[in-house]
Design a protein that fits this description.
With about 260 residues, the protein is of the alpha/beta class. The chain has 12 helices and 7 strands. The protein has a single domain, classed as Rossmann fold (3-Layer(aba) Sandwich). It has a 7-stranded mixed sheet with strand order 3-4-2-5-1-6-7, with helices on both faces. Helix 1 packs across helix 12.
């Protein structure tokens, strides 16, 4: 690999499956032998909870070993990386204090690029093949920071009546960010929480596929209770039950992502 590929999973609509998609793509990449660093940018800490038990996540959240503290103090992110129980997967955990990140960034010089600067040494070390970042369901300075630090964006969209709500705002926000980070590209949209017994999936799929110059992944993530059981056990579903439908779909999605990135 020539360089570390950084992908942000973002959608300003809550409940789109961002954290679940980010965690399982990360675990699927790791299962294929790639070295993965996960960066939890959401105050809900769901990405952290996908790999560490609740006690450990709360301990990191209350300490000074989390992403909030690193950005607030503008520290090199290498010192904030923690190992997970899973091979090839490391994590920079989140904190509930992330809710005040907009305030922390407000007075900073070149505030849109702080995270990119802090990630520089990690990327240049070539320690990881991929850095995957989970963004909060908002549009603001912190999400812009995450996007400016990324090479690619993936937008999970829920197949529901409100799943497309606010997507136009997301596209507009992306265009604004690309004016500052022109190398940032939209890798694609992944449709999540699919229930083919309902008409929402067909409507969502047709709408997205009719968007001009927008790629939609052919793999769709169906509703699967196994995902919730995996989350309850602090594991991504591709590790919890590899034979489950959702695990197979996340593995297939990961293959699509690698193909889109021209990986063999």
């Amino acid at each position: 690999m020539k360089h570390t590929v950084t992908i942000c999973f973002a959608n300003n609509k809550g409940g789109s499956g961002k954290s679940t998609t980010c965690s399982n793509v990360g675990a699927a990449l790791a299962a294929r032998g790639y070295r993965v660093l996960l960066l939890d940018g959401d105050m809900q800490c769901n990405l952290s909870l996908s790999f560490l038990d609740e006690d450990a996540v709360l301990e990191y959240a209350r300490s000074d070993r989390n992403l909030y503290y690193a950005v607030k103090e503008q520290k090199d992110l290498k010192a904030f990386i923690v190992q997970t129980p899973f091979e090839n997967v490391d994590l920079i955990p989140s904190s509930t204090l992330m809710s005040s990140m907009e305030y922390e960034l407000f007075t900073k010089w070149q505030r849109e690029f702080i995270l990119r600067k802090l990630l520089k040494s990690v990327k240049e070390s070539a320690q990881y093949d991929f850095i995957l970042m989970d963004a909060p369901p908002t549009l603001g300075g912190w999400v812009m920071n995450l996007l400016c630090a990324s090479d690619h964006l993936i937008i999970p969209v829920e197949a529901s009546p409100w799943g497309l709500f606010g997507l136009a705002n997301m596209f507009e926000f992306l265009q604004t960010t690309q004016e500052m980070a022109p190398d940032l590209g939209l890798l694609g949209i992944v449709i999540t929480k699919v229930d083919e017994r309902k008409s929402y999936f067909k409507q969502t799929k047709e709408f997205l596929e009719n968007l001009e110059d927008i790629s939609v992944f052919s793999t769709h993530i169906h509703v699967d209770s196994t995902v919730e059981w995996a989350q309850d056990n602090s594991k991504p579903v591709v590790q919890y039950r590899k034979s489950s439908r959702s695990a197979r779909e996340y593995m297939a999605l990961t293959e699509e992502i690698l193909s889109a990135l021209s990986f063999s």
